[in-house]
Design a protein that fits this description.
single chain; about 600 residues; Beta-Lactamase; Rossmann fold; 5-stranded antiparallel sheet
Length: about 600
């Protein structure tokens, strides 16, 4: 008896927990029981025991059949889903018989197969992209096991993928949890970029590389990391070339010290266009600061004209006869930037020679450190020491050299935010931000747009041999309504492109002269509302206000579509659900969500 009860319990557990839909019927096709999988498959939320199967699932029956016979058949419901149904008769005891329907959702299987094909296709695309990259790329999972690398990685490290796939990063490069930047990126859940790494591969090859390591996320969890590597020798050669060119410029400037243009600085305050009060205040502060030697920090969004201000300050200072040198701190890796800034001594690294850095080359002039917040923190500490002592020591050198350089630096974010985010040392900020100048974004000085347009048209008329007199009222309105996330630089590039499209006989810029991608951005950003058609040709208003999230926009459209389709079908929920291609239960849920009666 105990074994019989145990068998019944096992049968009941299988019936309730199997992923296959199961319905039990008597010989008259009355539903006896339906399992959880079948309920979810057909969206059934209430008990249906005792009801006729035909009343609930009429699509399972052919026209002339009153009952389902033993065997296998397929059928489609009103939602165009296809099911495979296997009917078997089972005897209970001596005389009792019942039917068991085993149901498989073929549509779901087809969708799953399609998703698997898509995943395979995406995987192949990713592999092809990685293979086409010139830099060495290697990818590991969250446990540090290598599962993907490209040919460039094989060539750089002199091993084959068969020798390393499936092995730990630690084994492949003879590193530890602490010395492997890939594993640290996984552990710290943040990128580790442009760092020097020395290792010996599992085949014994010693390597010096520069690498960037980025953790990979899925569903908010770290699932692995990717490392992009390049030979440090190539980076050294590039640094040497840059420094050679700088040295040539340095020597040329010394020979032409009396020439005004020798300072490589073309902009002056008269070139800054605008009447906005915030802009005028920034110009006023800059003119006053130009008369001293205090460090200046200029901050503003990308494209606002920070270097234009820096050059204007230099040309209004007592250092205007001296050189103006600029370096983008975001464009050069930290260890290379150190040599470029401070210079090198022979023997500092392979091929290094005695060569002055930018601090020495800019002596008597101005050094402009652009995008200071992108400089590595350890290099910021060395820069702070230089500013405190007014001396520099070349990379590999032992002696200190006095410098006479004014520092102007710039950032594309508020200094307080950079300090809070750990991108800028606070003590360095106090040294470099003696005078802080904020350049307002173009969206906060729209009264300057017409004057800027006039200035750029004048410039490109000369450069492109055009005779444009202005812009159309429609385009002027669009320019005023657009927020210009790229600021003055974006406006300048839009106008230059439009000037290239003007016919020789045209003297007015219009909307159609703008490049399509610029015009699309302008139109999308300035539209408060737009309209769209559904499959039936009905129009719906789509709200697209600044700052509005995509989810809110989609919900607004969904509410309108459901409301109007229900109204057209006189409130018939089943018909509306079929027309919209969703389940009745899904439609009822949305009606409740949007309070649609």
């Amino acid at each position: 008896m105990a074994k019989y009860i145990e068998t019944l319990e096992l049968g009941r557990a299988f019936f309730e927990n199997t992923e296959q839909g199961i319905i039990l019927l008597d010989l008259e096709d009355t539903v006896l029981e339906i399992n959880r999988a079948a309920q979810e498959m057909f969206g059934i939320e209430k008990a249906i025991s005792g009801q006729q199967l035909r009343e609930i699932f009429p699509f399972m029956y052919e026209k002339d059949k009153k009952q389902i016979e033993e065997g296998v058949f397929t059928c489609k419901n009103d939602y165009k889903k296809t099911y495979k149904i296997k009917c078997r008769q089972v005897r209970l005891g001596e005389t009792g018989l019942l039917k068991i329907l085993y149901i498989t959702d073929l549509t779901a299987i087809s969708e799953l197969q399609c998703k698997l094909r898509n995943v395979t296709s995406e995987r192949d695309k990713i592999r092809n992209i990685i293979e086409s990259i010139d830099e060495a790329v290697i990818v590991c999972d969250k446990d540090g096991i290598v599962f993907l690398l490209n040919r460039a990685c094989e060539k750089l490290n002199d091993f084959s993928r068969e020798q390393v796939i499936g092995k730990s990063v630690k084994e492949v490069y003879n590193l530890t949890e602490e010395t492997s930047y890939m594993l640290r990126a996984i552990k710290e859940k943040k990128p580790i970029l442009d760092v020097y790494q020395n290792y010996t591969t599992l085949l014994g090859k010693n390597m010096n590389i520069m690498c960037s390591n980025v953790p990979l996320f899925s569903g908010g969890k770290v699932v692995g990391a990717v490392s992009v590597m390049k030979s440090y020798y190539r980076a050294e050669k590039l640094t040497q070339k840059i420094m050679e060119l700088q040295e040539q410029l340095f020597n040329n400037r010394k020979r032409h010290r009396g020439n005004e243009s020798s300072n490589n600085c073309e902009y002056r305050f008269k070139d800054i266009v605008g009447v906005n009060s915030k802009l005028k205040q920034a110009i006023s502060w800059s003119k006053k600061a130009a008369l001293t030697s205090s460090p200046i920090l200029i901050y503003g969004e990308t494209g606002t004209g920070k270097e234009l201000f820096a050059q204007s300050i230099h040309n209004s200072s007592h250092r205007k006869e001296g050189p103006f040198l600029a370096v983008n701190c975001a464009a050069i890796p930290g260890n290379l930037l150190e040599g470029i800034l401070f210079g090198t001594e022979k023997g500092a690294f392979t091929g290094a020679v005695d060569r002055p850095g930018l601090f020495e080359q800019a002596s008597g002039g101005t050094l402009f450190l652009d995008e200071l917040n992108s400089m590595a923190l350890d290099l910021q500490a060395k820069l702070l020491r230089v500013l405190q002592q007014n001396t520099i020591r070349r990379v590999g050198g032992m002696t200190e050299k006095r410098i006479d350089v004014r520092i102007i630096s710039s950032m594309n974010e508020n200094p307080a935010e950079a300090i809070s985010a750990g991108r800028l040392r606070q003590d360095l900020y106090y040294r470099l931000g003696v005078v802080c100048i904020h350049i307002p974004p173009l969206r906060e000085r729209k009264e300057d747009i017409s004057q800027l347009v006039e200035e750029f048209i004048k410039r490109y008329n000369q450069k492109l041999n055009r005779n444009v007199q202005g812009i159309s009222p429609s385009l002027a309105k669009d320019f005023l309504n657009y927020n210009w996330p790229g600021n003055v630089r974006e406006l300048q590039h839009a106008l230059e492109s439009a000037m290239n499209m003007v016919e020789p006989h045209e003297n007015l810029l219009k909307d159609h002269h703008l490049p399509p991608h610029v015009l699309e951005k302008i139109e999308n950003k300035i539209s408060a509302t737009d309209t769209t058609k559904d499959i039936n040709g009905d129009y719906y208003s789509v709200t697209c206000k600044d700052g509005m999230e995509l989810q809110d926009i989609l919900q607004n459209v969904e509410y309108q579509v459901i409301s109007r389709t229900l109204q057209k079908n006189n409130g018939n929920v089943s018909k509306t659900a079929r027309e919209l291609g969703i389940r009745r239960q899904g439609l009822q849920y949305r009606m409740k969500k949007y309070n649609i009666k």
